[in-house]
């Protein structure tokens, strides 16, 4: 059984690193339209390379493909692979256009194909710990989820991610942070209201800030506060030092607060901490106690923060064993609907119902692109 990587940029090379020594695989093949890039990879790794997509799709030994190309190529590559009978693991977002994302989910159903989307935070211990607490009933019913995300402008003016064709900031970057509350609450978003100020980053064709509120079917509410330009620029960090420690206190923040009927949780990347509180009703009133605090070491950052290694290897094993994806196509599509609703709400300055977005996406009338 071989695996293929479709799109050999930075993420593609990351996946190659994850799978290179996987004992289940007999080989890897990397596809890219850039011959110079495939030559670089062939010189660096013991893998096959090609600039011809058909060579991958026609190879019966290739059972699973990892779509790691730019966002505007996700749908075309995923649909071609599904049509060829390959299992597909596509990086988020599913596609740059909601119509294409809906077509991917529909094709996976029609072909009984394997399609998983790369929401690797569902594999990452920082967030699986909170999910475990919720599933064990320690937080009770989830009532509110608040995410504060403040990075610096880390892409640079020449990145394709700053262009409208990327699918917008929500699809490219923020889809992770609205996907997690859906997973934690076990409930679907029914309505989104999002507001964006004018951009601080003048050369972005996508928005660089959002204040986005989601209402869930259970009555729970989630809020995402995102400001991209504030935190100190960190292109000159000492590579021999701990990145999170160097960024702590300079404006960087990525923190969740999850409040339930029985307790609460906090995840704090730059503090390397996970906390849990328990609520108790006493004669005085409602008392809250910090009952659990977990930390992790620098060496475990990947496992806790963006566990793409476990995701990639889990996909390979699911394909080998004939098991379904851990994240169903319709599940991932719902997150894409939330992203599109947030962009449309920011465009039009009004709340947007998810049932209306789903109808637009299935009719091919809504883009994920939110532009300035």
UniProtKB/TrEMBL annotation:
Pfam families: GFO_IDH_MocA, GFO_IDH_MocA_C3. GO terms for molecular function: nucleotide binding. Residues 127-265 form the GFO/IDH/MocA-like oxidoreductase domain. Residues 2-119 form the Gfo/Idh/MocA-like oxidoreductase N-terminal domain. It comes from the Bacteria. PANTHER family: BILIVERDIN REDUCTASE A. This is Dehydrogenase. It comes from Actinopolymorpha cephalotaxi.
């Amino acid at each position: 059984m071989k695996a293929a990587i479709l799109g050999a940029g930075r993420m593609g090379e990351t996946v190659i690193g994850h799978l290179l020594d996987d004992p289940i695989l007999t080989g890897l093949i990397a596809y890219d339209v850039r011959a110079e890039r495939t030559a670089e990879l062939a010189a660096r790794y013991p893998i096959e390379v090609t600039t011809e997509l058909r060579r991958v799709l026609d190879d019966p030994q290739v059972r699973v493909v990892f779509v790691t190309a730019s966002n505007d190529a996700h749908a075309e590559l995923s649909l071609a692979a599904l049509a060829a009978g390959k299992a597909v693991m596509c990086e988020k977002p599913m596609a740059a256009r909601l119509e294409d994302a809906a077509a991917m989910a529909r094709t996976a159903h029609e072909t009984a194909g394997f399609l998983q989307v790369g929401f690797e935070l569902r594999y990452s211990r920082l967030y699986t710990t909170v999910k475990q607490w919720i599933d064990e009933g320690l937080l009770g019913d989830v009532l509110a989820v608040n995410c504060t995300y403040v990075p610096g402008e880390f892409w640079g003016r020449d990145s394709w991610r700053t262009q409208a064709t990327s699918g917008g900031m929500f699809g490219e970057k923020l889809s992770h942070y609205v996907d997690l509350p859906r997973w934690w609450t076990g409930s679907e978003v029914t309505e989104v209201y999002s507001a964006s100020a004018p951009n601080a980053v003048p050369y972005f064709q996508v928005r660089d800030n959002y204040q986005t509120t989601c209402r869930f079917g259970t009555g729970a509410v989630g809020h995402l506060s995102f400001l991209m330009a504030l935190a100190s620029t960190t292109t000159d960090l000492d590579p021999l030092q701990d990145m999170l420690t160097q960024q702590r206190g300079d404006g960087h923040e990525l923190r969740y607060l999850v409040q339930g009927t029985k307790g609460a949780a906090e995840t704090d990347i730059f503090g390397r901490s996970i906390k849990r509180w328990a609520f108790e009703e006493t004669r005085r009133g409602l008392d809250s106690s910090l009952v659990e605090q977990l930390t992790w070491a620098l060496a475990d950052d990947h496992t806790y923060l963006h566990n793409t290694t476990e995701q990639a290897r889990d996909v390979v094993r699911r394909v080998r064993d004939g098991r379904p994806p851990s994240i169903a196509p319709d599940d991932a599509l719902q997150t894409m609907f939330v992203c599109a609703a947030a962009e449309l709400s920011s465009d039009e300055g009004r709340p947007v119902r998810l049932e209306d977005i789903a109808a637009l996406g299935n009719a091919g009338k809504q883009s994920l692109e939110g532009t300035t």
